[in-house]
Specification:
Strand content: 5-15%
Largest sheet: 2 strands, antiparallel
Helix content: 40-55%
Number of strands: 2
Shape: rod-shaped
Radius of gyration: 25 Å
Distance between the termini: 65 Å
Number of helices: 1
Order of helices and strands: HEE
Amino acid sequence: MNLFEFRNLLKSEDRKEKRKSFLRSLIKSVDSGANGTQDYVVKKGPGKDKVASTRQ
């Protein structure tokens, strides 16, 4: 590997790291269970509009 190839390798690694850090900064955190996303609400039947439990 000559000096030219080595420098290109280093530059490409730097570009990859910058891209990864940029993409990480774009990711937004979310609230678990916000807006009822964690629980299932029964739509029909005798238990209508109640939150279903996992136990049966």
